[in-house]
Amino acid sequence: MAQCLQSVQEFIQDSFVPMVAVLCSEDAEKVTRKNNLNFSELVRPFCRLTSEGHMRDPNNQIQVIKNLKINISNIVTQPPQPTVIRKMLSEVVSVSQPADGLVANVITAGDYDLNISDRSIKASVPWYNNWKESLMELSTSKFFTATTPWFEAYRENFFQSMPASDHEFLNHYLACMLVVSSREAEPVEQFLKLSQEQHQIQHSNEYSYPKWFIPNTLKYYVLLHDISEGDEQRADSVYEEMKQRYGTQGCYLLKINSRSSAIGSDEQIPDPWSQYLQKINFQNQDFNDESPSVVINSKNIENSINAEEADELDFSSKDGVPNNFKAHPLQLDHPSDPGGHLDSLEALKCTAPVSEAKKQTSVTTHGACLTLNDHDRIRQFIQEFTFRGLLPHIEKTIRQLNDQLVSRKGLSRSLFSATKKWFSGSKVPEKSINEPKNTAGLLYPPEAPELQIRKMADLCFLVQHYDLAYSCYHTAKKDFLNDQAMLYAAGALEMAAISAFLQPGAPRPYPAHYMDTAIQTYKDMCKNMVLAERCALLSAEVLKSQTKYSEAATLLIRMTSEEESVSVSSPLASCSEDSDLRSALLLEQAAHCFINMRSPMVRKFAFHMILAGHRYSKAGQKRHALRCYCQAMQVYKGKGWSLAEDHINFTIGRQSFTLRQLENAVSAFRHILINDSKQTASQQGTFLREYLYVYKSVSQLSPEGPLPQLPLPCIESSATRVFFGHDRRLAEGVKQAATHVSLDQEFDRDLSQQWKELEEQVVAIVNRGAVPVNFQPTQYCLNSQTDNLRFPMAVVEEPIIVEVVFKNPLKVPLVLTDLSLLWKFQPKDFCRLQNGEAKEVISNEKDAHMKPMVKNDVIGTEVIPEFNMSHEETKVARLKLFPHQTGELHILGVVYNLGTIPSPNMVDGIDSFAGIQTEGNLTSNGMSVRGRQDLEIQGPRLNNTKEEKTSVKHGPDRRLDPVITPPMPLLEVFFINFPTGLLCGEIRKAYVEFVNVSKVPLNALKVVSKHPEFFTFGSHSAPLTPLSPTASENCSAYKTVVSDSSSACTATTSLVSPVDFGVGCDNPGLGVVDIPLPDSVLLPGTSIQLPMWLRGPDKEGVHEINFLFYYKSTESTSKLSHRVLRHTAVICTSRSLSVRATVCRSNTFQDDDDGRNGNMLVFVDVENINTNEAGVREFHIVQVSSSSKHWRLQKCINPCEDKVCVLTDAKLSSRERGKLCFRATKCKSQEATSSALGKYTFTDINLGNEQIISATTPCADFFFRSCQSTESKKTVLSGQPAHVSSRWQSNDVTKVVRNCNEVDLNIIVLWKAYVVEDNKQLILEGQLHVALQTIGNEVCSLSQKQEAQEMVLLKFIRPEQPPSLARPSMEQLSHLIKTSLRYPESYDHPFLQKSLCMVPVTLTLSNCSLAGVDVIIDLRHKATSPETLEVHGSFTWLGKTQYKLQLKAQEIQKLQLKACFIHAGVYNLGTPRVFAKLTDQGSMCETSQQNSMPALIIINSV
Q1: Which residues touch 212 (CB under 8 Å, ≥6 apart)?
Q2: What is the pTM of this model?
């Protein structure tokens, strides 16, 4: 239980005190009324004796009586009504509340610090954030314990309100004071009248109440003298007469009113009566009109009790006695009932709670005519009455009763039974064990011996003689049990247990089973809950003092059972409200028992506090109910018990609203809604409607105040996105708008990095190769993954879209209306220098209470009229702002009306799913309230410095703080006839439309892409490609000319500079293309269409190609230097042709003009790898072109000289393959001179009747773009012969040998494909590129798939010495010398005439390198293999068998040889072996050169 101010011994002694009655004359009442007191109230503060009293027990032993208290009260002839008692007890509990200003008390229980006293309402609610600090400071103090003064006040008044009963005598009057004023004409006669009146009340059958202890009641005569008005001599003379008549121990002269109340005095006299008069006393003789009578409506205000208006007090006198004994003083006189039902908040405002009503009453001064000497006289009077009157009377009575008990002990049981029968009358009630055990059938007469023993026990108990009292109670208990008088037996058991506990020295343990039996008997057999409650209260206090908290809690909980039934004959009939208040108090005390255990049971404490709060609420004790729920919340919150938290917060919200604590009510309901609720949909709907009503009530109190934060829906602030840009036009017909950036696109970090790199690339080109230091990448859409450390840039007159993510955590739908953004704006003019005077900040927060206007001179705010959210839905709202001025904008949050859809379960204000009538019309159908939510975004965590790494610091996130810049141009791009599918290498012509939709002209329009080989806008310096008639007929993208049949398979040559196509040293930016605009400016509101050629990527599949369009304003601004537009093209490519090509040296030498330059053979292998995708029927190879600085195709070499045969070979169906052979020669002298200027020689060999000019757009564009990256990495060889030094370094040797094998020849295969689509035949065209770099290596137009590498184990190796420079391989060294034999194919010789045939043969040697070469020709080699001999005959070279020559760079020498044959036949002359090495390379051995093709000669015999 909670800590009490009194010890258990003090509590029990004060609960059972001697009762003294008072009868006053009218004049005596007038004397005391001067002090606003009656006589019993006058003496009440002095009824506790400050000195010890003594008396002798029956054994003549002196018994010391300490701290004795007596109860002096007016006589009331009617017992208190149960309804009045209930009202009084409810009022007592209601008035006793925790003081707001006192220090909070703390109990530390396990891991919990619980605030369980004065400030518990403030310190334990979930929205009170600072309670933890105060708790920790107080938790270690021993001076703070949990107290419950309302329980103590209830308990004290409960014991005082108990009516006297016939089965016990503790509440019976022992004496009666007769008080008469000295101003009476005949005081003695007045005493006689009062004495007769007392005798009539006690002994007349007309009065059954009050109860008297013994027939011979002590009468004590008090003469009351008013010093300020009365005659003191007369008072003394009357007192002398009284002493002679009643004895000195039976009377007393009390002098009071030493001063007049009208005379002011500076002396501050204490007022000891206030603390007693605040408690409602049942024993007052009459009811004071000065005391305010308050009736509180329980349905409207806390602690309310409905009562009918009581009749006025009847002061009619009876038998000459001017006292009204029938009207009990607790009966209410003119109760104040505010009346009506609380239908609105206004009704609640005008109704004052009890405590405030009492404060408003005028303060009544008590004891105004009394001085401190008068106080001492009253104290002395009580002491004299007790020591000289009351205690001797009690001692005498105990001796008399003891004598009867002693005489009884000598009698036998049978004789005593006869005596009992004689005393009790001739009728003895029949009893059976099986019949119900109750007191209805057994009533002892007043003279019964059992009652005499009980009287003696009670007297001994009242004067603290607990040993003798226990003995008597124990004896009486046996007799009562034998007689089955269960009510009497229960009373004896109860007092025996208490006496045993109070015995000094504790000779015997506390018999708790006595109390349990007594409680069970009171409840089950006697049906008297009042006595059972008294017994439980006493036993619980005793168990608590013995630290038996578990037993005490069990006892208290057992008393709160709902199945309580009280006998109709009981003087206090139980009702629901009475049971609720009692159960609430006992459950609260049980909860405190759990918390005070050695191992505190905190959760049980919280659970029983919830039960207590529920019963408090049913009893109308709203404040106490709120306090209990708040204390329990300390345990339940934050533990994951969401359902329990919801119930507690919901109850706290309702109780707080009823108590006009509206802010707390809003916070409690808010706490329910912001948590992850597990309630049903119907319950959540109830919570939400309650919250909306309370919130609206709060907002009505301060309509002009700032809008508070709404808890619903939840906003995921980190997911907020901000988009800067206008609504772009969608595709129209064949037009396709640029994709750019939109809120519908998901953020891709890798893609964003690609856009950033593209922008940096074009900015670097514009700024002459360097990116500015203050460069800020353009970000149109900001989110949690973008870089938000800088202030974003927005353009005036362009909308700003804020995407807010709302989440409805409830299972009920929400309706948001008039949804808009909150902002503040600082105007600034960036075009002019600031004068230092900041303009006033503009905000729309002041107008947030009403619907904001869409149009505004500064910032236009869009309003969403209605925004519906389904249950547990996450939905996105896109809100717009339209800035009309430049400056700094700060987006603060959102403002909206929160409402619900009317519930179909609401009928006439009754919630069918809640099952209760809503209090105060708290729910409403379709109600909405206006509020706001701030957008608070936490920036990224900083992790750069050591301090940031060791602590948690976050950087700024400025996505909601854009800077509004001056007007800028705005570009829109549309693509016309832009394909979505292409064949690999297919060329398609489209158009791009550029539109300036702003009011500012733009220039410097550029486009950049990571795939420049995909598109081209044509050559820059040359005019745009004109359409030829043939091309227009076939819709060809190429420039074509008609060729005659004689020019087929012959070469047409053109010289082209790559600079003309945007490639070369003048344009170092790879992929950055200038878009040609007329006058380089696009004016506002104008548009232009430009042709754009596209080429399908060489790799099949889906390709995403990013275009970044860059443009600037003609007027430079300080904030925004440029703008960009993004477009992503998705192209799906399918397979077309596969081109494989090889190059090798020709064995023949041409004319002398071309002999030095040499020639080669180019073999082109074309395969149709298309599998009828896209409806392709067949491919035609229409032309093969070459592009090189050093080589060119000469002609097509084909075995069939017929033109028709060529065309047939160039037609390829699916999976067919064709081979073409071309002769390539070195460029001529004028062409070679042009190569020094970086020009390329384009050679076209058409295989049909139409020639495509490959040196123009788009063929040359795509060629240069495809090989641009490769060309930049190559080492450009100069056309002039290089100077050869005398001494070669190793790297020079490698270079010379490599150059000997390299070929810089690019092959362009142009094709047409015939496609059937929608029963129409279309002609597609395209080109494939093959770059021949090395002699003998095969090159393919398709990239070879890399085989997956197998995973190998990690190996650790020792680092070796840096490798030496690579030496040329044997393969490379074998191509230094080119050889050729010139001889007659057939030779006739008469062998019969001349046996030896000698044929001249010319061996031509050509140095293919740029350095001198030493050559050795060995003629000794002969074919010796049998297979060779079978085919070719053997012959012999005449002359030298070995020749040594030295050839200069690219020198050609001829060596004359003779071959000797001895008979006719076919001979192979290719037997000479040629060895070569570079000159001055002594360490290098000669390397055998590649053998030429077989040189066959036919020798005929004639």
Answers
A1: 172, 173, 202
A2: 0.70
